[in-house]
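Researcher: Quick test of sequence recovery. Tokens follow.
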């Protein structure tokens, strides 16, 4: 598969999860895990440019696919606009959920830079933050819209 723009070949068992292969065999550590059952959303990645919970995907299903994680959107050491907005708005404490939130928010704003507050909430509703609370996260994404509007 292609991971963050780089072709990667890895041997997997037929029951191995994309999440575990990314983290443990390819060392993509921005992809977090907490539940392994599709509930927390912390393992969200883009699979062929669609957000998926990587604990719900067998690694074999990603054979030949394009996988992107939060690292992909950092160019020449520069964070993506929505990632910067998270910092400006204090939208993180421990940061454990931040890769998933910022990845999903970036994906949304690239496709819908005029997303309403309700649309943002709906889009991010599958991801759980255990410490910051959602107010700052939603505000960070709302404020980042200006960077995605042409
Ligand atoms: S680890 Fe995948 S949804 Fe929680
Ligand atoms: S910032 Fe800690 S889980 Fe969200």
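Model:
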């Amino acid at each position: 598969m292609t991971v963050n723009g780089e072709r990667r070949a890895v041997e997997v068992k037929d029951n191995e999860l994309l999440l575990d292969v990314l983290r443990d065999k390819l060392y993509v550590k921005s992809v977090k895990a907490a539940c392994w059952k599709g509930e927390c959303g912390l393992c969200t990645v883009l699979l062929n440019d669609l957000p998926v919970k990587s604990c719900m995907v067998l690694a074999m299903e990603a054979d030949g696919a394009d996988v992107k994680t939060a690292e992909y959107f950092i160019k020449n050491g520069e964070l993506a606009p929505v990632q910067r907005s998270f910092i400006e708005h204090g939208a993180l404490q421990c940061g454990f959920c931040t890769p998933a939130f910022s990845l999903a928010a970036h994906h949304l704003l690239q496709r819908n830079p005029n997303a309403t507050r309700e649309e943002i909430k709906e889009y991010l509703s599958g991801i759980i933050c255990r410490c910051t609370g959602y107010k700052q996260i939603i505000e960070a994404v709302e404020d980042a819209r200006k960077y995605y509007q042409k």
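The beta strands are 2-3, 6-7, 44-47, 50-53, 66-68.
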